[in-house]
């Protein structure tokens, strides 16, 4: 199945008809602004709804470094999100220590490999909350 640039393109062209469902879970498209380049970057990410917000995980497969999209949203937390055919602006923040355990459990239920990724790295893998802007 797809992931990466082709995944993004198919998702955008089909309003998520292709690409929303991926490997037994669901993905959204997150667009951040490059902290150095100022360019827009779109990344497909596994997500879960949490009330009116959406959760994603900055795992990078357990790499010792945070993914670029996470570094970008730390510099500029205003992002664009696409879930199927719905597009909206959101503000991103890292889950607070008191929020994270419940959110981590939600995310590992849909992608158990997150627990494995955490064992591969000393960094704490963040859960990111995407809150829709009105």
TrEMBL record:
GO terms for molecular function: coenzyme F420 binding; oxidoreductase activity. It catalyses: oxidized coenzyme F420-(gamma-L-Glu)(n) + a quinol + H(+) = reduced coenzyme F420-(gamma-L-Glu)(n) + a quinone. Pfam families: F420H2_quin_red. Coiled coil: none annotated. One of its GO terms (cellular component) is plasma membrane. SUPFAM superfamilies: FMN-binding split barrel. It comes from the Bacteria. NCBIfam families: hi_GC_TIGR00026. Belongs to the F420H(2)-dependent quinone reductase family. This is Deazaflavin-dependent oxidoreductase (Nitroreductase family).
